[in-house]
Every structure is written in C-alpha cells, then in structure tokens.
Design brief:
Radius of gyration: 24 Å
Strand content: 15-25%
Low-confidence stretches: none
CATH superfamily of the largest domain: Creatinase/methionine aminopeptidase superfamily
Helix content: 25-40%
CATH architecture of the largest domain: Alpha-Beta Complex
Number of strands: 28
CATH topology of the largest domain: Creatine Amidinohydrolase
Largest sheet: 6 strands, mixed
Number of helices: 19
Mean pLDDT: 96
CATH class of the largest domain: Alpha Beta
Strand order of the largest sheet: 4-3-2-1-5-6
Length: 599
C-alpha cells in the first residue's frame, strides 16, 4: 500500500472478492459532513486528493475522479492522471457517468451510510439502462484494505454555555417539538453533527477544524430527545447539562433504534440523512417524512448573543491577522519564508490571543501559482518559497467559543504588475457592490451573486466558485442553507431567502492559472435596512470582518467616488476597532494601511 496505484489495485481485488464490478467512494461520512474525521478520509487515502468535495468511481478497467470547478487545478496536481480520469461536476454527474461506463449487467457497490436516498435513486435509474444494478454493501471495501485506518476520535463532549448560545437546550428542544406538532410528526432524526451540537448546546473535537462530536439524535414531539454517542465521550458535567429529558445511548444502538418507530411518522432530512437511515426507518414500519432538519434554519439565523459573540471574535481575530499582514510585508522580501512557515506564523498569532480553540479550516497559504487554486491546501511536499514578484493569498479563520471566523487577504511581494492591480481592483469593486447591496425581503443569494461578478464580467473575466457561504456560531465554517452563488452552482437545493441574523461570506476572486490568485473575503451579517419611502421591508449587510485591504494592489482610477467612500469608511472602522488592540508600532503601520485612497 506504499503508493496510490497499489491502493487502487488492492481495491479492485477486494471488489472481485465481494463480487462487485465497481464501487463509489464519496468524500463524506455517515452524517453527510463536508469536513470529516481521519477515520472517514477514504477518498484521500485512496487517491491523494486533499480537497473538501469530490467522489471517486472505480470500475474494473476505469477509475474516475469527480470534482467541481473549485478543484480543477488541485485535483490534477494531487491525483495521478495516468490512473484516474478527471470529470467535472455538475456538467457530468456521478450517476450519469456510471450509466455510460458501468459494464453491462454489472454490480456497482455503494455504502448506504455515505450517500443520500436521492443519490441512490439517480444512480439506480442510470444503471438500469445498462442492465446494471446498484448494490448496498454491509462493509465498505475501502475499509477492508486500509490497514492503518485511524479509529474514530474518543474526545469528550463539552458544554457550550447558554450565555454564548443565547438559548438553552430545553428552549431549542421545545421549538423542535413545536415544529413536529406543526408537521403532524412524532419524531425527527438529527444526523448532521452541527445540528446536534447546536440543539444540545454541546461541542466536541471529533472532526478537525469543526467543534462537533460523532453522534446521532432523535427528537420527539414531547420535547425529549435520544442521543446516541459513545459512552466514553460523556462526562458528569455534560450529563447534568443535558438533564433527564435527554436519554443517552451508545452510538452503536442508533441503527437498531430506527426499527422502533413502527406506525410513527418520523421526519428525516433527505439532504443530510443518509440512505441507510431512510431504509432503516422504512424497514421498521415508520412513515418517513422527507423534510429539512428543523435545526438548519434556526441555526443559520443568529440570535443576539451569537451575533455579539461573533463581533467579539472578529475583533480578536482581526488584530491577529493585522499583525500577520505586517509581518508578511516586513519578512517576505527577505526570501526566507515558505507557504508552510507563513501558515504557522498566522496560527501562532491567533494562538497568542489565548482564546483560539482551533483553526476553522486548514489555512490556504498560497503564493504565486498556488494562489490560482481556490481551495489549495499546503503540505510539506507542496510548500513553495514565497518570492518577490508574486502575490501571496491567505484564506484563514479561527474557532473561538464565541464565534467562527473566515477571512481572505492578498499580499504583494514586491511591486505588483498593472494587470494584478487591475484584477484586484475589479475583485474589490465586486466585493463593495455586494457589501453595499440593499434588497427586498425574500431575496436569495443567487439573485445577488452577479453584483460581485459584474466588474469582472465587464473585462471578460469570472471565477469558478460561489461568492458566499453561511458560517456557524462556533460550528462549521461552511453552513447552510443560505449561500451567494450562481443558481446552477454545485451544492444543490432550492435558493434560500436571506434573513436577518444570517452570517455569510463575501468573497469574489480572480484566478490566473499558473500565475496568481486574488480573493477578498469578509463576513457579513444580514440586517434590516431602513430605506426612506420603501414600499416593502428591505435588508442589507453589516460587515463583521476587520482587517486592512492592501492599498498597493488598488488602482484608484478604476474606483467610483462611492467605492472610494466605502473603502475609506471601512478602513476608518478598521482603525477604530483594531487600534486599541495593537501596540504603538502596529498602530502606526495600520494607520498607513488605512490611509484614504487617492484619485
């Protein structure tokens, strides 16, 4: 198993033993998580791909890697193109590809704990045209050949104080019970890890960068709840916090428990609950209601305590990032730093706050050509030296008990070219257009996405990722259901109206393959906006992130007076908010960075 080629060969041999003609390997876990624990990193182990979204399909004579536009460059850098075909979604779906490539009459395996029921239906339909069948496996064949597969984390649960959560767990369970009554349902399965963490006001350390615990929950209409979690993860403090209305079971008891709802109406989220959950409920005689997890929207709309916590975390995090940007400007011209050392320095500065729990994702520390890979992940093997003439892009964030941050800035090493300044300024114009948007109640992010793209479109340019994603409250850095993206952007689901209290990112970018990348990202909070004479409720955004935007990369002549006014006002707020957090030397540096923009 010393090479990825060996692993692919071993999987094919295992499939023969299992009487399968193919197998599908998604990048997720039993909870349909985006970021997964080490034990569930099957795709990375098999292929070498380090992105956060992708799927592999292995057939006897073919193997294909499916990724979206965010990973077009990254997948080719990390996965052997001589062994794997590269297929882009959504242009081609996994199901459609299987329909065209599976052997006639073949048996294609899948793990029902790693796919949704909708995916299963689509794959079955596509395979039927070839006389092939989709086969649910009891044991994942990748696990069977993975000799040193890590065990799931045994980290303990911890209590998230009500003062930071803004509501008690009992209040949240009561709201879930009210929802169940409205739906005429007896229970709802909560399988998304962040939904469980939010509903119970607990956090964990089972998934790197996301403070959640491996667990399942079933909430009943009487306000009680069954929590399925490994016994060693519990403590007396957590048990006391949860109280008698939360019944604790071993996590291994979850699948059998699904058979105990005969004659009951049980809700499960078709997007977040895997096929095995739907199958288990139906086999046990339950009537399954395919409804969105009721926690999803409640969690996305931050209450006043959560919003206040995020503001405090943003100030703390912004000061650390500002110190880092100063260090970059002073150190990079020496030619002594690499992508890895820079990422380590930024983490050191966040840790110096004394309140950092974890990073919110692996820092995207990318210089030169790596900056053109939107979700680049630096490793010992890939780390490049940071050299004069390049743009250094850093996308990073922290997990604090009071908030989750995510911010991107770009640092020029030496004198940027005219093209770099033009592209950066267009990205900035798009960022400002979204930050200043005023829109009627009921507007969704797809309707706002083009605000951020228009300055690039006018020059015949674009970027291949979404403009904004939701952010959790000391939870997942990528949180739904809201987003700002093109309507056909991968991720699926109906467009969600933006509501006051939602936190979302504002991150347009530009990427020149093989040369450099640009992205400017702040987090923004949806708020009500008083518009004189408005005939309907209106909304806008409060910018939550504070860090200087590099003036050396701005071409002032491209900016309108309104855009200059926004930039000057933003930098004025950065000075006001961060100034008290910095020492005299740091404040002097920041003062220069926040000077008003010239004409």
């Amino acid at each position: 198993m010393s090479s990825y080629s060996d692993r692919l060969t071993a999987l094919r041999e295992q499939l023969k033993r299992d009487r399968l003609d193919g197998f599908v390997v998604p990048l997720t876990d039993e909870h349909m998580s985006e970021y997964v624990g080490a034990y569930a990193q099957r795709l990375a182990w098999l292929t070498g791909f380090q992105g956060s979204a992708g799927t592999a399909v292995v057939l006897p004579a073919e193997a294909a890697m499916f990724t979206d536009g965010r990973y077009t460059l990254q997948v080719r850098e990390q996965v052997d193109g001589g062994t794997w075909q590269f297929v882009e979604v959504p242009a081609t779906s996994v199901a459609d590809w299987l329909g065209g490539h599976a052997p006639q009459g073949g048996r294609i395996g899948y793990d029902p704990w790693l796919h949704t029921s909708e995916w299963v239906k689509a794959a079955e339909k596509a395979l039927a045209a070839k006389g092939a069948t989709l086969v649910a496996v009891d044991t994942n064949p990748v696990d069977a050949i993975w000799p040193d597969r890590p065990a799931p984390s045994d980290a303990r649960l911890v209590v998230q104080p009500d003062s930071l959560a803004g509501k008690s767990s009992a209040e949240k369970r009561a709201e879930i019970a009210d929802w169940l009554t409205e739906q005429k349902a007896d229970a709802v399965v909560l399988s998304a890890l962040d939904s469980i963490a939010w509903a119970l006001n607990v956090r964990g350390a089972d998934v790197e960068r996301t403070p959640v615990a491996l667990a399942y929950a079933i909430a009943d209409a009487d306000g009680t709840l069954d929590l399925f979690v490994a016994p060693e993860k519990m403590s007396d403090e957590v048990a006391a916090h949860l109280g008698n209305a939360v019944r604790i079971h071993d996590r291994t008891d979850f699948a059998p428990a699904l058979s105990k709802y005969a004659g009951k109406r049980v809700a499960a989220d078709p997007e977040r609950a895997v096929a095995a959950i739907f199958d288990g409920l139906k086999a046990g005689g339950a009537t399954v209601l395919a409804l969105r997890d009721p926690v999803v929207l409640a969690k996305a709309i931050k209450n006043p305590a959560e919003a206040a916590g995020h503001r405090a975390a943003s100030v703390r995090d912004g000061a650390a990032l500002t110190r880092f940007l100063k260090w970059c400007e002073e150190t990079f011209p020496n030619g002594t730093e690499t992508e890895l050392t820079a990422a380590a320095k930024l983490q050191e500065l966040r840790e110096a706050t004394g309140l950092l729990k974890d990073l919110s994702f692996d820092t995207i520390s990318a210089t030169g050509p790596h900056g053109a890979i939107p979700h680049y992940r630096v490793t010992e093997e890939s780390s490049l030296p940071i050299k004069p003439g390049e743009l250094y892009l850093v996308d990073s964030g922290g997990q604090y008990a009071d908030g989750t941050t995510d911010v991107t800035r770009v640092v020029p090493v030496g004198e940027p070219t005219a093209e770099m300044r033009d592209r950066f300024t267009r990205v900035l114009q798009g960022h400002i257009a979204l930050a200043t948007a005023v829109f009627p109640e009921g507007t969704n992010g797809g309707q706002l996405d083009s605000f951020a793209r228009r300055p690039l479109w006018e020059a015949g340019l674009d970027f291949a990722h979404g403009t904004g994603h939701g952010v959790g409250s000391y939870l997942a850095v990528h949180e739904g259901p809201q987003r700002i993206a093109k309507p056909n952007y991968p991720g699926g689901g109906p467009a969600e109206p933006l509501r006051p209290g939602m936190i979302i990112s504002n991150e347009p970018g530009y990427y020149k393959a093989g040369d450099y990348g640009i992205r400017i990202e702040n987090l923004i909070l949806v708020e009500r906006r008083d518009v004189p004479g408005a005939e309907q409720p209106m909304m806008g955004f409060e910018t939550l992130t504070y860090a200087p935007i590099e003036r050396r990369l701005i071409e002032p002549a491209l900016l309108s007076q309104a855009e200059r006014a926004w930039l000057d006002a933003y930098h004025g707020r950065v000075l006001d908010v961060l100034g008290p957090q910095l020492n005299a030397e740091e404040r002097t540096w920041l003062l220069a960075k926040c000077a008003t923009i010239g004409g």
